[in-house]
């Protein structure tokens, strides 16, 4: 339980093994780590992931925010250990865990960021008056969505239909792996399969947040950091370049760049990414 | 004689029930009041707004007044903007008057719904500054806050930390000005100008007014 919200926790490995806390990305769910986490577990780690509020098997909430996700992360870590532990996250989950390390340095031993560093704004680089129109459309679209969201349900589809939709985000995954993701990330209703994620959540965003805010927390982090980047361009990716990220990393960081992987590095290349993570964890002081 | 209990319309914003209070009847375009952080809709029309010819309504934001309390927090100002939009869905074209937090939300909704918000008045009040122009040092709340009713302590905490960059605020001001077609889209009567409001006040189409005359720019417009 985190502040009245039930959070579903998923674990791999022995209960008495050293723990590592792992956050998934926005619109994803903990069991996207089902291929990656067992590799860490086999190497002697207790991997603890959780479905963020509104995602996977956790409660749907009335409101969602970055700070609320951060509180939920602390509630999960509190349920594991009081001792400092390595924390890891993918995409937005990496951003949340980076803030966790910045806010609670005494609770973190290390940070692993899986394609989780944004250096650019999502808004295209266009002249000011064009941007005004773009943002106006974005805002009206979001407000129209909010007006329509009462009692909204996600669209039902077949398992293969949802797998095909997921394939648009993960173009290099096998059909079998995509079908597995649907089988745990969606549920079967009488009229078809639906993603479990709260239908009140909507992709795409606006708001005051800007990538410099996340970046500016990086150089001061007191824990060793491993940053893994996937360079294949994808709709869910950040479009960050290694040279833009490098200068912000805290002293002693490692940067691993995967040219042939996309944004979901741990889903696409679980064994290879786990190898980098295990090497980093083994080398921790 | 003020009415004993203002009639309340219940609105829905996703999973939240919102209370929209009718403070006074009138002819023409409604004035929509947005309260400050931790406040609720006032019982009566404030003296400097009684000259408004149309009906006067007040909205209780999520977690405030007679609106419902969400579980586990998660507040930010854009969600309150969608509260205000729920009121627009019910009332149609309005002029907005916002205090403090409500002034910032009034700016946001004026920029996001320029065809429905016929001018917004930005006044002093609780929560005017928000969390400043840059993110504060991060802090994570560990123990759950005791929630006994409205205002929701999570709202008080989170909306006091909501970051308001000046260039973000001016984006909304420019949208309100360019897309509403109004000569004056925003009127500032707040005495205090935190960075976001100082930037907004310097934009074309934004007028400085006294509190006593704050409704004037919006009396003769469609």
What would you say this structure looks like, in words?
The complex is a heterodimer of chains A (285) and B (222). Chain A is an alpha/beta fold. The mean pLDDT of chain A is 92. Chain A has helices spanning 37-42, 66-80, 92-103, 128-148, 159-169, 175-185, 211-215, 242-246, 265-268, 270-282; strands at residues 9-12, 19-23, 46-50, 85-90, 108-114, 186-189, 192-195, 225-230, 254-258. Chain A folds into three domains: 9-121 and 210-282, 3-Layer(aba) Sandwich (Rossmann fold), CATH 3.40.50; 124-150 and 197-208, no CATH class; 155-196, no CATH class. Chain B has a single domain (8-217), classed as Alpha/Beta hydrolase fold, catalytic domain (Rossmann fold). Chain B contains five helices and eight strands; from the N terminus they run E-E-E-E-H-E-H-E-H-H-E-H-E. The A-B interface holds A 2-5, 53, 61-65, 67-68, 70-71, 74, 78, 99-100, 102-104, 129, 131-132, 135-136, 139-140, 142-143, 146-147, 149-150, 200, 206-210, 213, 217 and B 12-16, 62, 68, 70-76, 78-79, 81-82, 85-86, 89, 111-114, 134-135, 137-142, 144-145, 154, 158, 161, 163-165, 168, 171, 174-175, 178-179.
């Amino acid at each position: 339980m985190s502040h009245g919200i039930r959070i579903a926790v998923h674990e791999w490995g022995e209960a008495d093994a050293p723990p590592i806390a792992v956050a998934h990305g926005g619109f994803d769910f903990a069991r996207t780590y089902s291929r990656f986490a067992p590799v860490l577990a086999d190497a002697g780690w207790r991997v603890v992931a959780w479905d963020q509020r509104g995602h996977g098997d956790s409660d749907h909430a009335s409101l969602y925010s970055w700070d609320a996700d951060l509180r939920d992360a602390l509630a999960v870590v509190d349920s594991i250990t009081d001792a400092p532990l390595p924390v890891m996250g993918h995409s937005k989950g990496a951003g949340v865990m980076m803030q966790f390390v910045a806010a609670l340095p005494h609770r973190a031993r290390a940070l692993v960021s899986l394609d989780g560093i944004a250096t650019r704004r999502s808004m295209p680089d266009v002249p000011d008056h064009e941007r005004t129109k773009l943002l106006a459309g974005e805002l009206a679209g979001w407000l129209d969505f909010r007006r329509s969201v009462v009692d909204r349900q996600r669209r039902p589809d077949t398992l293969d239909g949802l797998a095909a939709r997921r394939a648009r985000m993960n173009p290099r995954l096998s059909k079998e792996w995509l079908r597995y993701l649907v089988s745990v990330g969606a549920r079967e209703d009488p009229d078809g399969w639906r993603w479990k994620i709260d239908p009140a959540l909507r992709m795409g965003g606006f708001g005051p947040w800007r990538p410099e805010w996340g970046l500016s927390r990086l150089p001061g982090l007191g824990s060793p950091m491993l940053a893994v980047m996937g360079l294949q361009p994808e709709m869910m990716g950040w479009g960050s370049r290694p040279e833009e990220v490098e200068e912000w990393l805290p002293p002693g960081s490692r940067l691993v760049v995967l040219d042939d992987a996309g944004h979901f590095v741990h889903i696409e290349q679980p064994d290879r990414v786990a190898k980098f993570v295990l090497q980093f964890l083994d080398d921790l002081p | 004689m003020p009415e004993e209990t203002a009639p309340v319309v219940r609105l829905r914003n996703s999973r939240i029930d919102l209370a929209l209070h009718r403070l006074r009847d009138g002819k023409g375009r409604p004035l929509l009041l947005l309260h400050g952080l931790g406040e609720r809709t006032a019982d009566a029309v404030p003296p400097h707004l009684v000259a408004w010819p149309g009906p006067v309504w007040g909205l209780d934001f999520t977690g405030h007044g007679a609106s419902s309390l969400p579980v586990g927090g998660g507040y930010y100002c854009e969600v309150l903007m969608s509260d205000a939009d729920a009121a627009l869905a019910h009332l149609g074209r309005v002029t907005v008057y916002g205090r403090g937090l409500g002034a910032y939300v009034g700016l946001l909704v004026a920029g996001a719904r320029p065809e429905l918000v016929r001018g917004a008045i930005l006044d002093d009040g609780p929560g005017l500054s928000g969390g400043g122009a840059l993110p504060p040092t991060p802090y994570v709340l560990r123990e759950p806050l005791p929630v006994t009713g409205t205002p929701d302590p999570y709202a008080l905490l989170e909306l006091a930390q909501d970051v308001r960059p000046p260039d973000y605020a001016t984006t909304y001001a420019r949208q309100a000005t360019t897309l509403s077609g109004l000569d004056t889209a925003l009127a500032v009567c707040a005495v205090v100008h935190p960075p976001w409001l100082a930037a907004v006040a310097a934009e074309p189409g934004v007028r400085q007014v006294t509190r006593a005359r704050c409704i004037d720019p919006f009396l003769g417009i469609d």
